[in-house]
């Protein structure tokens, strides 16, 4: 087992992997994820709806000509990874995955061993300078050109004291004009109030706490950058067809894209 991995503490990346049908998880991850699934009838659909949003968002950004991406808090590789979608539009696209979890990096590097256009680095997005100082970022990302920066279902693991808006600003300050910022974030807007304590107490026993935010709080994370239509909406309604829009799980997560 790679150094630094604790199989006995539920890990949010491995829980996400389990819910999405992956195999890179331990009993503690499956137990807590199972508890949440039993408590939240459409919880699994929420994660899947968010993953589908990510796919549509990356395809949209790539279609605007963006051919380099930084995926912050990337999580374990699964179907529809950022590099796969980006390179289906731009075969030469560069992608850097960033995660603090050593097991994520082990699996990502194994997946990317033969791809010199994509890299995975172990760094804490809460300390942006460690990301910018990475050799992989220096090699693959040119901040003088437009870049896609992705915070997919990660900022809700950042507490207010850790200044999520400041973290985002550190990256948007580096972004060239024409760059795109993708954010998705969990919310309790329009959600059953009796589930709040269940979810929060569950994540208190995991590797990161859950910090739900409302629409206006999430909108402020974009630091005033203009959002493309339809703005910040529930992920099942962002550039979605009728079937996707009817998916109830998407109501747990807001998503949007801003352009610098």
From TrEMBL:
Entries under Gene3D superfamilies matching the protein: Vaccinia Virus protein VP39
Pfam families noted in UniProt: Methyltransf_19
InterPro entries noted in UniProt: SAM-dependent_MTases_sf, SAM_dep_MeTrfase_SAV2177_type
Database matches in CDD domains: AdoMet_MTases
Record protein name field: SAM-dependent methyltransferase
UniProt source species: Actinomadura bangladeshensis
